[in-house]
Task: structure prediction
Amino acid sequence: MRRTTIRSFVLAVAVQLLVGVSARGQAAPWPGTTEGDYVAKNFKFRSGELLPELRLHYTTLGKPVRDAQGRVSNAVLILHGTGGTGHQFLQQQFAGELFGPGQLLDSTRYFIILPDGVGHGKSSKPSDGLHAHFPQYDYDDMVSAHHLLLKEGLGVDHLRLILGTSMGCMHSFVWGETYPDFMDALMPLACQPVQIAGRNRVWRKMVMDAIRNDPEWKGGDYSAEPQQALRTALDLLLIAGSAPLYMQKSLPTRDAADKYLDDYFKTRLAGLDANDLMYAVNSSRNYDPSPQLEKITSPVTYINSADDFINPPELGMAEREIKRVKNARFVLLPINDETRGHGTHTKAVIWKQYLAELLQTTAK
Result:
């Protein structure tokens, strides 16, 4: 395989993985983007811990429009996965399919909000200085913080749409239950609306155990990154985010596969912080929207892909649980040459037809 082909494959898979730890700077500038920070004072976490200043970073495209009642009518919130940032959605495979003139989420018509979650990107996170003494945030904290960002930081009191991928998919279900009147529609991609258990929990715990059991971890107060722990974690994340058919076709020889893995570590280890990774993976520990799914009143189009290692279709949980949500539709994308396993959630060309239908059916 040619070197340029392998390099392109490395970058593609890096975007597709559950953890977007190399998201900094990976997307080219998108016209009309604005970045900012909202600082929430004395933010109290569900654990009881308090952070005097919680910084919430965001990127926006477009301008808010208000209806006759003064309510924002065109805001779209797009939520990233574990370890990612809002900037990952400025990739050509996402923004290039959705944000351009005449496209479904045309940024001249919609006010698009791409926040960095707590513990991620340029928002407050352990590696800023508190390290293992950072508050033990969870998904409810992350959703609460984004709700505060919208209302107090951006003056947005209503959302036309919430679209979330992976962790953002799970956050979408939490949003729907916690703030049922806040959005017109929900589009969760690549998750399950149930507690994280079974193999999904096992591989996550393996990642965290690999970090905790490295002698260089030192309870999170390390002076240098625990390299062996991070390599093991990246091994597991690679498998979790992989797409067998795509990898077999893209890496058809032993040498190509070996070269890809070597390049993968070079690409992903740079800038990866063990505390940030530990916190990000651990934040899913008490996620479980299943007891309150009936509280979701907004129309939902929920999408998984059949080659997703993290959310395999044979579990049948998605089809079963989504029946409890009013006005909900579940779509299972079949495996083909375009799907990318878990990372199918960011390849908009595969599923944007369903977004078009959701926007049409919820138009006012």
Remarks:
- Residues 1-27 have pLDDT under 50 and may be disordered.
- The two ends are 51 Å apart (CA to CA).
